[in-house]
Structure formats: C-alpha cells, structure tokens
C-alpha cells in the first residue's frame, strides 16, 4: 500500500495564493487535497476523490492535518484560553494570573 505524504508543492495547504494578485488557486500537484500517495518507488500521485471517503484514508489525512496544525502552532490545547485571540473579551479570555 502507498504511503500518504504531505504535498511537497503546496506543503499541505492544497492551494496557493498569488502574493501579487491575491488570487487563490488549487494546487495541481495534489488536486487541492494537500496530501498525495507516495508509492514504494517514491513517485507521488493524486489521491483520487473517491479514496477520500474511505475511513482508513480520511483518518490518516486527519492525523496528518492535526500534525501539520501543531507544527504551525495552531494547537487548541497547547495555548491557554486567554492566549487565544479568538477568546479576547470573553470570560475565558481573561487571564486569571494578570494582576491588573
Ligand atoms: Zn499540493
């Protein structure tokens, strides 16, 4: 069975944003999925859309995506509630250790 690896072209994003025009386009390499199959010969292939519905594939992709988010610092558990911008101004967004 082929491995699933992060798309080397878009680094798992699945799309590109043109920094000059701001136009967003799907990545051709992975067909917008962000991940590709890598066979034993080291050749990368699209993951067919039908395969995305298979539980063993979607579970694997979800795990890879969680890993990627953590690498980028988007872990929801590593940050305290008051360190999350989205919670500013809410009860959870108040730092209990802040003396002000
Ligand atoms: Zn890609």
What can you tell me about this protein's structure?
The chain has one domain. By secondary structure, it is α+β, with helices and mostly antiparallel strands. β4 and β5 form a beta hairpin. The strands form two sheets. A three-stranded antiparallel β-sheet has the order 1-4-5, covered by helices on one side. The radius of gyration is 18 Å and the shape is extended. The chain binds zinc ion.
Structural class category: alpha+beta
Query: Alpha-carbon distance between the termini?
Result: 58 Å
Supply Rg. Answer: 18 Å
H/E series, N to C? EEEEEH
The best one-word shape is extended
Summarize the SSE layout with pairings.
Elements: E1 3-6, E2 15-17, E3 24-26, E4 35-38, E5 44-45, H1 55-71
Antiparallel strand pairs: 1-4, 2-3, 4-5
Bound molecules: zinc ion.
Zinc ion binds at residues 7, 9-10, 14, 27, 29-30, 34.
Brief write-up:
With 100 residues, this protein is α+β, with helices and mostly antiparallel strands. 17% of the residues lie in helices and 16% in strands.
Which structural traits does this protein have?
alpha+beta; 5 strands; 17% helix; binds zinc ion; 3-stranded antiparallel beta sheet; 100 residues; 1 helix
